[in-house]
Amino acid sequence: MQDIVIRAGKKDFWAYSHRTTDGYTFNSHMHVCYEFLYITEGHFLYTVEGTDYSLSPGDMIVTAPNELHSFSFPEKCRYQRQFLHIYPRLIENFPEQAHQLLLRPHGKGNLIPAVLVDKYKIPYIFSELDDYCTHKPPETDVMVLTFALQLIVKYTSILRNEIILDNKIRLNSNTERIREYVGRHFTSPMTLDEIADYMFLDKSYICRLFKHETGMTLKNYINLRRIILAKNLIQAGGKPTAVYNECGFDNYSTFWRCFQKYAGSTPEQFQRTCVVPKQSSAAQAK
């Protein structure tokens, strides 16, 4: 691993990293923040909520809080990237931008190709981020916050002017509506009947459709999202006996069994491995 710059900023507002590694596989996961990932070297496959994107140098990929994603490298290569994590707490102070971000459905509009990255002068933002976070002058925190806001504004402008208007995002498929509903409600004890009522569709049809289009059952998808959120909360310092209810489980025993199935360890075993402080863990997630 080379060229590592990791900088965690004002608590729960932002975290930045610039890293170079060999290409590797990162299994399905999600964050509690918005992630802006700018690629400077490497070619790989990035999957967000079942949508596959082929990434190359100059591209940027954006994921929202609780948006499931993974990536892999078909061939061995060097992987260099910069990423900025922006926490919802910062964006809440700017309701118009927050609303624009919420308009994008999960798994759509994540990739900003290099031609648009250049058009909107996004490399300049990452260059300035890197400079401030490397040298760390006293004004670093304030300056990074201004660049974070610029990045959000540019991204929402691209969605509004370049992607949605170009009909590259489909908004009305049943699978996307299911994902959107799950994304809003998976932290509560949601049932298949509730999803069927929302969709005005038979629940057996919903299950078959979802499995056909995503390759996983709806139940597994919901539980995976819940366990990934639980892992994030535990890594951030939460106790397993306290976080299970925040993740949509109505009792600890069900949570414990589900955690062991999807995480490969018990919640307590996983907690003992979480030795990295909260801000650093966010920056080191990739």
Which helices and strands appear, and what pairs or packs with what?
Blueprint: E1 2-8, E2 14-22, E3 26-29, E4 34-41, E5 44-48, E6 51-55, E7 60-63, E8 69-72, E9 78-86, H1 88-91, H2 95-103, E10 111-112, H3 114-119, H4 122-135, H5 140-163, H6 174-185, H7 192-199, H8 203-214, H9 218-235, H10 240-243, H11 252-263, H12 267-273, H13 278-283
Antiparallel strand pairs: 1-2, 2-9, 3-8, 4-7, 4-9, 5-6, 5-8, 7-10
Helix pairs in contact: 4-5, 9-11
Descriptive key words:
286 residues, alpha+beta, 6-stranded antiparallel beta sheet, 4-stranded antiparallel beta sheet, 13 helices, 48% helix, disordered N terminus, disordered C terminus
Instruction: Write down the overall geometry.
Output: globular
Q: What is the helix/strand order?
A: EEEEEEEEEHHEHHHHHHHHHHH
**From the helix content, strand content and strand pairing, which structural class follows?**
alpha+beta
The span between the termini is 12 Å
How many DSSP E strands? 10
With helices defined by DSSP (H or I, 4 residues minimum), what is the helix count? Answer: 13
Strand content: 15-25%
- Which residues sit in consecutive blocks of at least 5 with pLDDT less than 50? 1-6, 165-172, 276-285
Instruction: Give me the side-by-side strand order of the main sheet.
Output: 1-2-9-4-7-10
| Major beta sheet summary | 6 strands, antiparallel
State the helical fraction: 40-55%
Q: Indicate the mean pLDDT.
A: 84
- Gyration radius (Cα, Å) is 19 Å
